[in-house]
Amino acid sequence: MMILNASCRPNARLVSWGAMMRANGEARTKGDDLREKILATALDLFSTHGYFNTSIQDIRRKADVSTGAIYHHFQNKEALAKSLYESLLRQMEDAIVQECQQCSGCFNQSRAIIDRLFRLTVEQPKVMQFVLLAQHREYLPGEPPICSSRPFQIMRQVIEQGMAAGEVRQMELWVAATTMFGGALRMMNLYLDEVLEYPLPDYTDEVANAAWRGICP
Fold first, then answer.
1. What value does the mean pLDDT take over residues 87-103?
2. 203: burial class by Cβ within 10 Å (0-12, 13-18, 19+)?
3. Per-residue pLDDT, 26
4. CATH at 44
5. pTM, entire model
6. What is the pLDDT of residues 10-29, one digit of tens each?
7. Secondary structure of the chain: what % helix, strand, coil (to 5)?
8. CATH of the domain at 132
9. What separation in angstroms does the CA of 137 have from each of 86, 146, 187?
10. Are 10 and 87 in a shared domain?
């Protein structure tokens, strides 16, 4: 009987711990979902009204969460904006890296980057508006300028490698990278300002070819 009881107790305890682990897993998932909901709401409000015209209470009301829930995940509004900015830059970086891995050659990679950025601008306009147009250094003074972020570093690396391979004529790297991608970034701004006559992706080839003529040998 003692052996039987001893063998039953661990099983009962395992069930108990298993239930607790599942509950903890669900709590973590709900916590992650809540954090993403807060970030998505902040993105919507920051893009629509601007950082300074959006308060924590505005985010709380639109997200339909408690103030405590926001402060559980973010120390303050600046920390929330920083997390959002870093998250969106990582997404942009992943998209650019993915495009570069699918083709070779400086022109092909540059065109693929432009195409992906154009599609991202159409599919996620608020994301691109926040990343490209918001004056981040006004409220995130510790952040480097957008041109020093990882996505833009990768874009310069593509041009630098093209220069080393003889695909791009020798010139100042910043000049070459700006020539290749600056026009595309301006077109994205024009799209977000609703100025363009045609869908943004329709301009991909013309923009890429015109830029390439400025840096090819």
1. 93
2. buried
3. 47
4. 1.10.10.60
5. 0.80
6. 333 333 334 433 444 444 56
7. 80, 0, 20
8. 1.10.357.10
9. 13, 9, 23
10. no
Count of Cβ atoms closer than 10 Å to residue 29 Cβ = 10
Query: What is the extent of the structural domain holding 153?
Result: 77-217
In the structure, how many helices (H) and strands (E) does the chain have?
A: 10, 0
- Give per-residue burial for 31-66: e unless 16+ CB within 10 Å, then b: eeebbeebbebbbbbbbeeebeebebebbbebbebe
- The SS3 of residue 143 is coil
Which amino acid makes up residue 72?
Answer: H
Q: How many other C-beta atoms are found inside a 10 Å radius of the C-beta of residue 87?
A: 15
Is residue 133 scored above 70 in pLDDT?
A: yes
The 3 state secondary structure assigned to 101-136 is HCCCCHHHHHHHHHHHHHHHHHHCHHHHHHHHCCCH
Tokens read off for 211: 């830029």
The reply to whether 32 and 118 lie within a common domain is no
Whether residue 15 is found in the same domain as residue 119: no
- Are 62 and 33 found together in one domain? yes
Tens of pLDDT, residues 148-185: 899 999 999 999 999 999 999 999 999 999 999 999 99
Contact status, residue 69 vs residue 41, Cβ threshold 8 Å:
no
Residue that terminates a domain, selected from 74, 100, 122: 74
